[in-house]
Design brief:
alpha/beta, Rossmann fold, Glutamyl-tRNA Synthetase, domain 2, Ribosomal Protein L25, Chain P, 7-stranded mixed sheet, elongated, binds adenosine-5'-triphosphate, binds magnesium ion
């Protein structure tokens, strides 16, 4: 198969391998903070990290970045593991940054002993003021010149719970004059008397991101630590800690985060949508979460394909939601089983089909697949439902469906011709009367009649009902990147429409996880809300891109 060109990270890796760096090893990690469900942006990072290790014979750790005790929950840990597995990846080790708390504490003492860290009693405001501005250097306070012994004693007391939250912090003694504000004596530890989902009440001091992430990478011998662009200014500090601690030299590389039109891509904002009930939960089919996309009918392969197509770049950009839809449509066109469902029904009576008679017709499950993957039975009778939009009283010339005198083929069945129709007092069509051509049965048509249009239908006495949920974009604004807080004004009121549809009886056998094409209506999947008496289908995507400009 044709190989695409290398992305910039693969180029770095290949260069490192050529130079024998790290013994040619490629160890990566995916480091989610367990404070929400994974979204499609995380899928990009997952595909990148796991894909790179697979490509170069390495391995990938799943590391929960659980250094913040307040926002983290076990429910999130479980959902993250399930989603990574579902996407098709296997981690070498399941690890938790909190497992390194003892080691990180020892690292901090090591820096104190080297005179490279000190305990500061200043308030957050005082510390911010001390740091100066990007154009003016910071000003040291007396705490910066505390002795090693005093720092050691105070830090141990912080650890032992002697001080309340916020009373003291541990800071790196780096460079108060650095042009990089992150180097101006950044915080390493803060006091937080809080319960942690794994370590319980053992700790009342917690390391900051900058003093946990790089150290965790190093402990795990991660060779290529991939993160998003906003961490570029953290890289200098990442390297500084590793150098001063004299530990394994992991290296950080940054790539552009994924942004998609008409949606938000941040756990904080997604949590807000859940909490304020704009959606039914993290797995609402309108959510850009992995669990939402799965429930919507997306497959793991389609998401991996999407991540492959968007590639890895060094510049932020906004990807069109239609590309995601393109990827699932491509797959479902090849795999979905064809079925018939009428979403907006009007009744057709076949006047020359004997009353009380019925017959069993057949339709291939998947005409795109070799052998059609078998077929299903489709009952036919004198009364059918068709889509209301497939009939026009005054049809224009190129309307190849039903109207007075017009002929159309019923999918997998016969050609019919409209003879008459019935309207109620409001002018609404209530019944269309047709005759059928007995010799025109699909597969054995000897009628010699050619019709241009084919429409779907469901036999009235055999029809089952289902709730069908039709989705549209969650937001009305294309670029939601800077949207904060007030989602009310930006939510698309048409993002979910539910209709009761008539479905062919075979659809009562539908299975969760399988894609169905409701002929002419789009790709659908069974929703877990379904019960045997009340089926629910989600529209995954329409058959064609209705958003093309
Ligand atoms: P969020 O803002 O959604 O909370 P985060 O970066 O804080 O995202 P983490 O749990 O820390 O979430 O993310 C785990 C990994 O996934 C990180 O390496 C992060 O860079 C990456 N990641 C998160 N969002 C995106 C995105 N939109 N595109 C690409 N990678 C992402
Ligand atoms: Mg993070
Ligand atoms: Mg975050």
């Amino acid at each position: 198969s044709e190989k695409r060109s290398l992305n910039f990270i693969e180029e770095i890796v290949e260069e490192d391998i050529r130079n024998g760096k790290n013994g040619g090893k490629v160890f990566t990690r995916f480091p989610p903070e367990p404070n929400g469900y994974l979204h499609i942006g995380h899928a990009k990072s997952i595909c990148l990290n796991f894909g790179l290790a697979q490509e170069y014979g390495g391995q990938t750790n799943l590391r929960f970045d659980d250094t913040n005790p307040v926002t983290e929950e076990t429910e999130y840990v479980e959902s993250i593991k399930a989603d990574v597995k579902w996407l098709g990846f296997t981690w070498a080790n399941e690890l938790y940054a909190s497992d390194y708390f003892d080691l990180l504490y020892a690292f901090a003492l090591n820096l104190i002993q080297k005179g490279l860290a000190y305990v500061d009693d200043s308030s957050p405001e005082e510390i911010a003021a001390q740091k100066g501005t990007p154009t003016e250097p910071g000003t040291p306070k007396q705490y910066r010149s505390r002795s090693v012994e005093e720092n050691e004693r105070l830090f141990k007391e912080m650890h032992d719970g002697k001080y309340p939250d916020g009373a003291k912090v541990l800071r790196a003694k780096a460079d108060l004059a650095s042009p990089n504000m992150h180097m101006r004596d950044p915080l390493m530890y803060r006091i937080k008397h809080a319960h942690h989902h794994r370590t319980g009440n053992k700790w009342c001091i917690y390391p900051m991101y900058d003093f946990a992430h790089g150290q965790s990478d190093s402990i795990e011998n991660i060779t290529h630590s991939l993160c998003t662009l906003e961490f570029i200014p953290h890289r200098e500090l990442y390297n500084w800690f590793i150098e001063k601690l004299e530990i394994f030299p992991s290296q950080q590389y940054e790539f552009a985060r994924l942004n998609i039109t008409y949606t938000v891509m941040s756990k904080r904002k997604l949590l807000q949508l859940v909490n304020q009930k704009f959606v039914s939960g993290w797995d609402d089919p309108r959510m850009p979460t992995i669990s939402g996309l799965r429930r919507r009918g997306y497959t793991a392969a389609s998401i991996r394909d999407f991540c492959d197509r968007i590639g890895v770049a060094k510049r932020e950009n906004l990807i069109d939601y239609s590309l995601l839809e393109f990827c699932i449509r491509e797959e479902l066109n090849k795999t979905a089983w064809r079925r018939m469902a009428v979403l907006d029904p009007v009744k057709v009576v076949i006047t020359n089909y004997p009353e009380g008679q019925e017959e069993m017709l057949h339709g291939k499950n998947n005409p795109e697949a070799e052998g059609g993957e078998g077929s299903r039975d489709i009952p036919f009778s004198r009364e059918l439902y068709i889509e209301r939009e497939d009939f026009m009283e005054n049809a224009p010339k190129k309307f190849f469906r039903l109207g007075p005198g017009l002929m159309v083929r019923l999918k997998n069945a016969y050609i019919i011709q409209c003879e008459d129709f019935v309207k109620d007092e409001n002018g609404q069509i209530t019944e269309i009367r047709c005759s059928y051509i007995p010799e025109s049965k699909s597969g054995q048509d000897t009628s010699g009649i050619n019709v241009k249009g084919t429409i779907h239908w469901v036999s009235v006495p055999h029809a089952k009902t289902a709730e069908v949920r039709l989705y549209d974009r969650l937001f009305t604004a294309e670029d939601m990147g800077s949207a904060e807080g007030n989602f009310e004004d930006l939510i698309n009121p048409q993002s979910l429409t539910a209709v009761t549809a008539f479905i062919e009886p075979d659809l009562t056998q539908a299975e969760i996880g399988r894609g169905y094409q409701f002929i002419r209506k789009g790709y659908f999947c069974l929703d877990p809300d379904s019960t045997s008496g009340n089926l629910v289908f989600n529209r995954t995507v329409t058959l064609k891109d209705t958003w093309a400009k």
